[in-house]
Amino acid sequence: MVSDTQSAPRPSANASRTVRFRIKRQDRPGEAPRWEEFLVDAEPGSNVIACLQQIARMSKTAEGKATTPVCYDSGCLEEVCGSCAMVINGKVRPSCSALVDKVVGPDGTITLEPMSKFPVVRDLAVDRSRAFHNLERVKAWVPIDGTYHLGAGPKDTPANQETRYTLSTCMTCACCLEACPQFNLEEDKSKWDGEFIGAHAISQARLFNAHPTGAALASERLDVLMAKGGVNDCGNAQNCVKVCPKEIPLTESIAAIGRAVTVHAIKSFFSGR
Ligand code: SF4
Ligand code: SF4
User: What does the pLDDT read at residue 13?
Assistant: First the structure.
């Protein structure tokens, strides 16, 4: 149920609580943003995305002014697809796993903003194409030799499988890119390839280089990560690892790829490549 009053939030352990949402809104790409506020009766244990579903159904702000539904991206609602990432009270995170009781400020307010490193499509929805483009740059896939049945794959050790499993949980939410001081908004697609590739792509290169079949493209991946915008552009601020909702050891991946790139550069030098 949606409240249309402006009364102060009423905190309660078991009952629903009224939460004030401050949302940065933008009707279309390139347009100036504006702020709007909404009051939501949040059930105990509800998450930010559930409140956004309520807000999207509202036709008026906390002040009772008529407005349009707030737009946001979401897919799985269980922290697997990565599409609902946004800046919540100043910290980037997926909104599906952001529990209201954990993120609400002492004044009963939650502030929502779109990620700042990607172009805004509308309101909280951003275009994350560059994050996916950077996965293409490192060929973040296992090459296959056709669509027919290829039989059992090569053997792998349990230890390597365990490492790869952790890395494989990346959902390209782009939280690590939003938090990274080396990764900045660049809307001109022609410039993307020379810009810092991001912790997610570095970690995915590590994942596929560690795959027995994916390793066939290891040299091509390391070529990209050795060039401008590659692993050496990482400033080691380590913001990425602090915000990754899947707790992927990103700095470990950056260090591992840094070592692999050094070995690759030496081999390339002596082989005249
Ligand atoms: S590495 Fe973590 S923060 Fe970065 S895109 Fe993957 S899941 Fe998101
Ligand atoms: S450690 Fe590297 S990738 Fe991670 S936030 Fe810092 S500069 Fe970005």
Answer: 60
Instruction: Say what the pLDDT of residue 148 is.
Output: 82
Ligand 1, residues at Cβ distance < 6 Å:
82, 170-176, 199-200, 203, 244, 246, 248, 250
Number of domains in the chain: 2
Spatial distance between the Cα atoms of 231 and 198, rounded to a whole number of angstroms: 8
74 by Cβ neighbours in 10 Å (0-12 / 13-18 / 19+) ranks as middle
Q: Token pair 């690590």 is at which residue?
A: 176
Q: What is the pLDDT of residue 83?
A: 97
Residue whose C-alpha is closest to residue 98's, from 165, 45, 27: 45
How far away, in angstroms, is 231 Cα from ligand 2 center? 9
CATH of the domain at 179: 1.10.1060.10
With the most atoms of ligand 1 within 8 angstroms of its CB, the residue from 168, 175, 234, 242 to mutate is: 175
In this prediction, residue 5 carries a pLDDT of 38
Domain that holds residue 249: 128-271
Please check whether residue 165 lies inside any domain of the structure.
yes
Q: Is the CB of 231 under 6 A from ligand 2?
A: no
On whether both 154 and 235 belong to a single domain, the answer is yes
Cα-to-centroid distance, 267 and ligand 1 (Å): 31
pLDDT < 70 regions, the chain: 1-13
